[in-house]
Amino acid sequence: MKTTTKIVTISLLFCVLLASCQSTAESQADPPKPEDRSQPQSENQAQEPQANDENMLVVSLSPPKINLDPLHTFTSTEAQIYTAIYEGLVTYHPFTLEPMPAVAEYWEISSDRKTYRFHIRESARYWNGDQVEPEHFRDTWLALINPANPGEYGSLLDIIKGARDYRLGLNDDPTSVGITVPEPGILQVELEKPAPHFLKILCHHSFSPLHPKMLEVKDWSNMTTVLGNGPFTIVESNDTEMVLKKNQLYWDSNAVHLDGINIVYSDDGKWAARSIDNGTLHWAEGNVDFDILENKEAMILNPVFSTTYFFFSSSSSQSESYNNPQLRRALGLLVPWDEVRSTQYMYLPTDSLVPQISGYPTVHGIAATDSETAMKLLDEAGFSDGKGLPEIKFLIPEGTEAQRIADLMAEAWRKALGVKVTIENAGFGDYYERIKNEDFTLGVLTWVGDFADPLSFLQMWTSDAALNVGKYHNDRYDAMVSEAATEENEIERYKEMATAEQLLLDDATVLPIKHAPAFNIIDLDRVRGWFPNPLDIHPFKYLEFEQFILPDGVV
Predict the structure, then answer these.
(1) What ranges make up the beta strands (E) of 247-340?
(2) Which CATH number belongs to the domain containing residue 77 in this structure?
(3) Which residues belong to the signal peptide in this entry (predicted)?
């Protein structure tokens, strides 16, 4: 989005945006208080809403290809949908994002902080009435780290005893993994070392249980429904919409106030603006024509734990030369960063990967053009003045922003080095599959952290992480991240992670562009339970329509 706002500092704007978001949220409803997680919880006894046609929430989301398999997922659109159809041991608090009891009624942690015992609710059910069992979590997590078909987020479980060796095929005995059911109703997890972030990662949808019948499914590509355990069930699903209805068997159904949700996949900004204005669309994620939108007060802008970056692919058979960090850094130093990161085009330009977190040290990547150093590095890498450089191929999603930046980079490299550069566009719905499977030199992603911790940006670049689509490999980096993941002292932990980030940026595998705020269009005078938050995840369970009560005598 083009803006003329003058940005003084990133941190100042984040504070201003966050303050405005908090006041917006507080003005429409007090956020729910986190439950006591150390003791059993009673079921919510809120009043059941009366069913009516007007109690259907209509939402517009971006139209990528939706994968209903939570073990193999990649997009933020899927993450939002999964809040309706799946639920794990814990779930996000809608405002603070702290872990809240979900399928796990409560849990116990050993004195050495390495063993967790989760007590599964007897009232937790799948949509068909079958009880959710601790064995379902065990079997689903083992499927997530199965080396024959590992899930994208499986490496996050490496902190569990034996999980990494099993995931990498170094040990084929699933009983060696510290995920057990020692007695009925109890899931026990043993960690290699204490991990302060463990409960936070369990909020992620990849760690939800799958019904045994769903674990038997081999091909999810044409699935239009599932057997979930979340607060809503799927009535209909196709390429243009998904219709959900309230799950009456959900353990906390009395706290679910919507009768259903109609999710429309659309990138038609004019339709979204008109629909928001006439009240037939209640919430739109970003794809709205702001120029014609009349209800400007419905625009919510808030900072998100997110970074847009270009990255080199080390797996490209056509350009193995670009595996050389010196060569990558030389190319990075030739980029006209003042134009790429111009505040004319973005709110929060950055040269760091990890968004600002209180207490996390400042880390800088390539901040400015330096042609002299670039040419020295090229000479050291064996490509004096760019002679002999293989073709550079960009693979980017359709869209003006990615195209603008790729064009600037390509022109700079053609002019300075005479190298051939091509730019290939991919449809948004296909892009994520293509960057995982095709040859290219540079791609681009906007990554939203899966939990509010630097590790959610750093672990994905370790050599054996399924999310490492660039196939970056550095043994020193791997060791740094592994050590930081189990460091209990937060100050030391942040220092270790910052050192790892600096190595990643010095290797120029990642070229950060901006920290992207979230744009949502939602009338908070009409919809309750929606709160701006750093992950831009808004659990559907908590959403409801504002009830307007007329004074006595008014009809």
Answers:
(1) 260-265, 283-284, 299-302, 306-312
(2) 3.90.76.10
(3) 1-25
Residue 187 sits in which domain range? 68-215
Q: What is the pTM of this model?
A: 0.82
Q: Which residues on neighbouring strands pair with residue 395, listed in sequence order?
A: 424, 443
Residue 76's pLDDT band, with cuts at 50, 70 and 90, is confident
Q: Which of 375, 279, 394, 285 is nearest to 327 (CA)?
A: 375
Strand partners, 394: 423, 442
Among candidate residues 384, 325, 359, the one with its CA nearest the CA of residue 503:
325
Please tell me the distance from the alpha carbon of residue 76 to that of residue 82, in angstroms, as a whole number.
10
Condensed to tens digits (0 to 9), the pLDDT of residues 78-106 reads 999 999 999 999 999 988 889 999 999 99
3-state class (DSSP) for residue 514? strand
Task: Enumerate the β-bridge partners of residue 422.
Answer: 393
Cβ-proximal residues to 358 (8 Å cutoff; 6+ apart), any chain: none
Asked whether residue 284 is assigned to any structural domain, the reply reads no
Residue 242 pLDDT greater than 50, yes or no: yes
CATH assignment of the domain containing 457: 3.10.105.10
- Cα separation, 48 vs 262, in Å, equals 20
Beta bridge partners of 58: 262
Residue 333 has pLDDT above 90, yes or no: yes
| 41 inside domain | no
Distances (CA, A) of 41 to 4, 94, 130: 50, 18, 21
Q: Is 484 a domain residue?
A: yes
